[in-house]
Specification:
The protein has about 725 residues and is α+β, with helices and mostly antiparallel strands. It is about 30% helix and about 35% strand.
Length: about 725
């Protein structure tokens, strides 16, 4: 009965906190039109997303159809939030029925050429990165009364935290770019056809897959190591261009049908393997309004979040994925460390300083923030102390100094917090400075910063934030709310202090994400982590600085190796001041040709390291190094863009087709991988580096992982009811 009342109370809290969020109109990915323009916008007719998660990374392919219903040729401008740690590797336009792949150039040169081709009336496309906020795609011209097909593909490392993997398709704009919001109107409506297809091929068994905010998605288990998610909406006048009408996709589809005939039949007839197919009874919060003149089958205004949970009791491990096609060439590797459950709970009282962003850009995220803080402090023991700092244009203290985490104090703090209305600018420096004031050297202290990370008032230079944090021996734990946050600053800040950063989407299972963080904060951590590899020559390791690892976290190390052979691999660290060494022997292969994407993933990781060094001192050498790496490996960065031209125009501008060749090589590898069975990439099987199994979510005592899912469904049902009747 006590458990029932706790759960019932939690459901009421979640519903109350979400009412404010539901009532706000959010910005989104979509076609942009100048706010002052009176001409009707273009039509985003189709939007198709295809995701493959395997071998420790994800490949996301987005194919779109832009339609011009007007009598005049127009330029299409499409914007979407920068996905976390995404290496944009491919941008294509179909010209005269043929897919033409873009090439990466220095940003200024790419822009100049695009403008020349636009002025000449030639078909061209440009993908640019707008700092840490958005990617922008320009396509010219969209011919009068015709359509144009484009495709973009990006890669991301994919890791697992406390046995739970998470992938996010970022659509909801963070609302942090005030200049863009005032200049552009966004059309996020897909009018004719939307599809989302995600496949997970895991070397370790998966026992559950969930989409907390899209209950209408179809989830299909093919095997314990392979799952599929589909989400499709189609209008009555859809153009039949489902996903990629190219040779690679057709071969992939044919291979899949040959490899999984029973599953293909089940998807069509919904019969023999019905027990493996999870399909909720009702549809979710997708906008599906159908009007006579303007049909809308999907709105690109809400992130799609996919969770998968590994089978419990899996061993701690070290996994290795390599790419090396020539015995005389350097190879690229990705090594993933998943420590066992080696960290003990912390029982001593600690001080927690919550620094909370209440600026205007947090309006659509504040209810999620309050719920996260609520769940965090309710899990604290009575020996812990709480202090809450709020900041917008200025910073002030909500609490009266430190207050013990008693039920009475917690209730009073939350009551005050729920009365706060976000407004004004973001003086992040002032908030952090006040939070670092009055620290007690006799007690362990953690700083929890909750923000969307856009400093626009007061001191905004990155280097000053790093210097401020260096003055205090304290760990910073950052919760990054929404998209378009300043990831390049927030993540290194947390990592350098020995803390961690956690991203939270409005489409997340908020309670589950908070519980993941709470479990980390309630256990010891691996500090001063270092990786040592002997016996095989390796170089260019990333990340340059690891820092700390918390319970359930993975460490992904990438680099180059020069010769094959057996290497001794060590993970050196300290736990509560005592040195720990975890070691094994791992074989680096002579030839491995299935994962060419590793080269781009390494280059992205290397660029991230260089960008972090620029936080301390920026110079032209760093910018030049980033530019050269991006040009060699074909990545869109702050200094490079991807340009699509008609084939003959590439020759006219003397642009080499390096990225085209790389794209073709990666496409062949994807087809080849699709013909192989799912296999484990574990490299320490013969000599395990860790003796204990991996940690898994504890459930916080009264809440299991399944119960979190149930709460999410309850929340979804409320949203649906409110959308229909409120």
């Amino acid at each position: 009965m006590k458990l029932f009342y706790r759960v019932n109370h939690l459901i009421r809290l979640i519903i109350t906190a979400t009412v404010f969020l539901i009532s706000l109109q959010v910005s989104a990915a979509g076609l942009l039109t100048p706010a002052s323009n009176t001409f009707p916008p273009l039509d985003l007719a189709e939007h198709h997303v295809d995701v493959m998660i395997e071998n420790g990374y994800s490949i996301t392919t987005v194919t779109q159809i832009f339609e011009n219903p007007h009598a005049t040729d127009l330029e299409a401008i499409y914007s979407f939030p920068v996905p976390k740690h995404a290496a944009v590797a491919e941008f294509s336009i179909w010209i005269d029925g043929k897919q033409v792949v873009g090439e990466v150039l220095e940003k200024k040169r790419a822009k100049t050429i695009y403008q020349k081709e636009k002025d000449a009336g030639n078909t061209a496309g440009l993908t640019e990165k707008n700092d840490y906020k958005t990617f922008q795609i320009n396509v010219t011209p969209i011919r009068a009364n015709k359509n144009t097909k484009i495709q973009i593909r990006y890669y991301q490392q994919s890791n697992v935290d406390l046995g739970i993997g998470r992938w996010v398709y970022q659509l909801e704009d963070g609302g942090v770019d005030e200049e863009a919001l005032s200049f552009w109107n966004t059309n996020s409506n897909v009018s004719k056809s939307f599809s989302f297809n995600l496949t997970i091929r895991s070397g370790y068994p998966i026992d559950a897959v969930r989409l907390p905010n899209h209950a209408q998605a179809k989830i299909t288990q093919i095997s314990p190591q392979e799952w599929q998610v589909t989400l499709n909406k189609k209008g009555s006048t859809s153009i039949e261009t489902h996903m990629n009408n190219d040779d690679e996709t057709r071969e992939l589809q044919q291979t899949y049908r040959q490899s999984h005939p029973m599953e293909e039949m089940a998807l069509e007839s919904n019969s023999e393997v019905q027990e493996k197919h999870i399909e909720p009874k009702k549809s979710s919060s997708i906008s599906t309004t159908n009007q006579s003149n303007n049909q809308n089958v999907f709105d690109l205004n809400q992130d799609i979040v996919v969770y998968w949970r590994h089978q419990q009791g899996l061993p701690g491990s070290i996994d290795l994925v390599s790419y090396r096609t020539d015995k005389n060439a350097k190879g690229t590797f990705m090594m993933t460390f998943t420590p066992g459950d080696e960290l003990s709970p912390i029982s001593k009282g600690r001080d927690w300083n919550f620094i909370l962003d209440i600026s205007g850009s947090m309006q659509g995220k504040f209810s999620s923030l309050v719920e996260g803080v609520s769940q965090s402090i309710k899990k604290m023991n009575h020996q812990d102390r709480i202090r809450i700092i709020l900041f917008n244009n200025i910073a002030h203290e909500l609490t009266q100094g430190y207050e013990y985490a008693t039920p009475e104090n917690i209730q009073h703090i939350l009551s005050q917090l729920k009365q706060v209305s976000p407004d004004n600018g973001t003086n992040l420096y002032a908030g952090l400075e006040k939070g670092l004031d009055s620290l007690n050297s006799d007690r362990a202290t953690g700083i929890i910063l909750v923000t969307d990370g856009v400093a626009n008032v007061g001191n905004t230079e990155k280097k000053h934030f790093f210097r401020l944090l260096e003055k205090s021996d304290v760990r910073l734990f950052t919760f990054i709310m929404g998209n378009s946050a300043n990831q390049p600053m927030l993540e290194p800040l947390a990592r350098r202090s020995g803390g961690f950063a956690l991203n939270i989407s409005n489409a997340d299972d908020i309670v589950g994400r908070v519980m993941q963080a709470t479990q980390k904060l309630s256990h010891q951590a691996f500090h001063d982590v270092q990786v040592k590899i002997d016996g095989v020559k390796v170089s260019d390791l990333t990340p340059k600085h690891v820092g700390s690892l918390y319970q359930g976290q993975q460490l992904i190390v990438m680099g180059h190796y020069w010769k094959p052979g057996l290497a001794r691999v060590e993970l050196r660290t300290k736990v509560s001041g005592q040195e720990k060494i975890y070691s094994t022997q791992i074989n680096f292969p002579d030839v491995a040709d299935l994962n060419p994407e590793l080269e781009r993933l390494w280059s992205y990781a290397k660029i991230t390291d260089l960008e972090e060094r620029m936080q301390d001192f920026a110079n032209e050498d760093h910018k030049q190094a980033i530019t050269e790496i991006a040009l060699e490996y074909g990545l869109v960065t702050d200094y490079t863009s991807m340009l699509v031209l008609q084939d003959e125009q590439f020759q006219a501008y003397n642009i080499k087709r390096n990225n085209k060749n790389r794209v073709e090589r990666e496409a062949k590898a994807r087809v080849k991988r699709s013909k192989t069975k799912v296999t484990s990439t574990r490299a320490d099987r013969k000599q395990p580096a860790f003796n204990k199994p991996r940690p898994s979510p504890t459930g916080g005592g009264s809440l299991s992982w399944l119960l979190i899912v149930m709460l999410s469904i309850k929340l979804f049902n409320f949203r649906k009811h409110c959308n229909s009747n409120c």
